[in-house]
Specification:
Length: 449
Amino acid sequence: MIFDTIVGIATLRGISALNVVRVSGSDAIVLVNRLFVGKNLETQPTHSVSYGHIVDDGVTIDEVLVSIFREPKSFTAENVVEISTHGGYLIAEKVIESLIKIGCRMAEPGEFTKRAYLNGRIDLTQAESIMDMVNAKTMTQLQIANQGLSGEVRNLINNLQADLLSLIAKIEVNIDYPEYDDAIVMTNEIIIPEASSLIEKIDDVLLKSNTGKVIREGIKTVIIGRPNVGKSSLLNTLLREEKAIVTEISGTTRDLIEGELNLGGIILKLIDTAGIRTTEDIVEKIGIDRAKKAMSEADLVLLVLDQSQKLTDADKELLEITKHKTRIIVGNKNDLGSSVNIEDEKIIRISAKNKTGIDLLESEVKQLFIDENLIGNNETMLSNTRHIGKLKEAKQSLIDAITSAKQNFPVDMVEIDLRKSWESLGEITGDSGTDALISTLFSKFCLGK
């Protein structure tokens, strides 16, 4: 493919030591060379760096280093030039303005990565992993992103597609060349076991993806309880900072207070809520309504009880309304004694004030949400919601194919569902992606990527 030449800033805007201006396209080297005073860039070898100045209309903009990457050995598989300027907002902007004036176009968000995809340099799983690497906040998130970037996710999907294509090919041979003595007779007894085997493989990937998704997206965690059980103290202890105001006055917390905790490579998106109780205070009522809404949307509920006191009616009500949520019952104020026991319920006993038992709580969260063996063994996991959704679509099409086969539909009708499954898998890597899908995905990237 031949595209016009684009330019964008590849580093964060603002005050910094350096900025990098990236240019990509067939004319990238020629156009930058028109502004560069130093060696002739058109004669420099690929993967070389040249020292000089960017000069526009006789005015020196900056002293720079220019890196040359000749096609196809570049990120976009096009000619790429990276200009390292001094930091600051103005310098990079002036360099970009000068390049646009002589023929470049400002890059759209994600357009460099989009070109890498369209030129066959990477697939969609690798493209999405690039942004996952940029957004990674923990080493575990980085580990998962690297799996995608190195092609492990693509290989996983390609293997499933290969098995599916083999089954489709057998059907095609049977339909097109029934007279062949050595052609496999495609009976439902053959289709059903092979499709069932594929479903088992997909189920294994989906099971592992539960851990992958948690690593990538974190766990939306809401801390609830009646007033003065120590919710805000627990938030502060987990975050290791005084995020929430703690007093002996009931109803101190009236709005949602949020923070993030790196729990051994897993991000807990913590939300402290207003104490849930009956009140006539209008502002407190709003806080309680927000607390209930946050609880309904949470992945995990930390239900905090004051274990130094017997259960109140408010405690019992919260136990009831959270019984169908993924929850951990936290018995706080362990330093003041333990008066709470709940039949058939595990209670993690802590003292937020004295910071004891927190390790038990963290361990319980991990046990609920992740398989640490998968992380330790660096097993390939899907983590992207889009990928997981498409894999579920592929599984459903296989289920539909098996249903049709069991109802003795003609094999060419069964093949329709098998092809739908293959296409769903292809949408993960981009092999069968639509233009709308591609545009939507790359529009979420940052400028310069």
